[in-house]
């Protein structure tokens, strides 16, 4: 799962991957997180930055849960029992990036599309 997420995140401008104090892989743009990955008892976890409207829609749809501790900011996590839809996840990761990125990078990404 980590390699697939890396392949989605790395082409985005000025993305950095860090390992935080909890051992989570965190993808950031200009110091702001937009993807976090963890592992709990061998089960990978994926959390994504989203806005509250998108969060609501994803929670209603199913396959996602509100991320503990930061869900009140709009973050969602892939339900560990869900089969990942990688096309959808790629879009959600990009949306999270656009929420976290400064305006000049948002413009750069949107101009490429």
TrEMBL record:
The keyword Cell cycle does not apply. It comes from the Bacteria. One of its GO terms (molecular function) is DNA binding. The keyword Transcription does not apply. InterPro entries: YjbR-like_sf, YjbR/MT2646/Rv2570-like. Keywords: DNA-binding. This is MmcQ/YjbR family DNA-binding protein.
């Amino acid at each position: 799962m980590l390699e697939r997420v890396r392949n989605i995140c790395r082409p985005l401008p000025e993305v950095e991957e860090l390992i935080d104090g909890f051992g989570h892989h965190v993808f950031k743009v200009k110091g702001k997180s937009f993807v976090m990955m963890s592992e709990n008892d061998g089960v990978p976890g994926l959390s994504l930055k989203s806005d509250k409207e998108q969060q609501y829609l994803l929670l209603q749809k199913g396959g996602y849960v509100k991320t503990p501790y930061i869900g009140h900011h709009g973050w969602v996590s892939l339900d560990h029992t869900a089969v990942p839809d990688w096309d959808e996840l790629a879009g959600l990761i990009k949306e999270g990036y656009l929420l976290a990125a400064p305006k000049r990078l948002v413009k750069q990404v949107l101009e490429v599309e």
